[in-house]
Design goal:
By secondary structure, the chain is mainly α. It has one domain (2-114). The chain is built from 2 helices and no strands. The longest helix has 56 residues, at 59-114.
């Protein structure tokens, strides 16, 4: 009886380890696929290093420069949107002011004409 139980335990452990192996193999395939996709970027960064060695001594310098430029670009876009909204508000205010002044002038003209 003891050997039958041990045999079942071993078979369960083997099945568990096979499942784990299968999961790890799937994970390995996903990692390899991602690594292959990232190779394009790695090759690009290496070419940039070759052509701009004086400006970028290491890959980290390129990445840092990219982050700085991206951050600056995001700030500029945000500022531009704010400025566009401000211009739109000013244009609306200007239009309202012009209508108001035109109305005043027409009223004044009518008052003068009636005298």
């Amino acid at each position: 009886m003891l050997t039958f139980q041990k045999k079942n335990e071993k078979l369960a452990e083997i099945a568990k380890q096979k499942k784990r192996l299968e999961d790890l193999q799937k994970l390995n395939l996903r990692i390899e696929a991602k690594k292959e996709k990232m190779k394009v970027y790695d090759d690009f960064l290496k070419k940039v290093l070759e052509h701009n060695a004086d400006e970028f001594p290491e890959v980290n310098d390129i990445v840092s420069r990219y982050k700085t430029l991206k951050h600056s670009n995001d700030k500029l876009k945000s500022s531009q949107l704010k400025d566009e909204k401000d211009i739109e508000i000013l244009a609306e205010n200007n239009s309202f002011y012009k209508k108001e002044q035109t109305t005043k002038m027409v009223k004044q003209g009518g008052t003068i004409a009636s005298k």
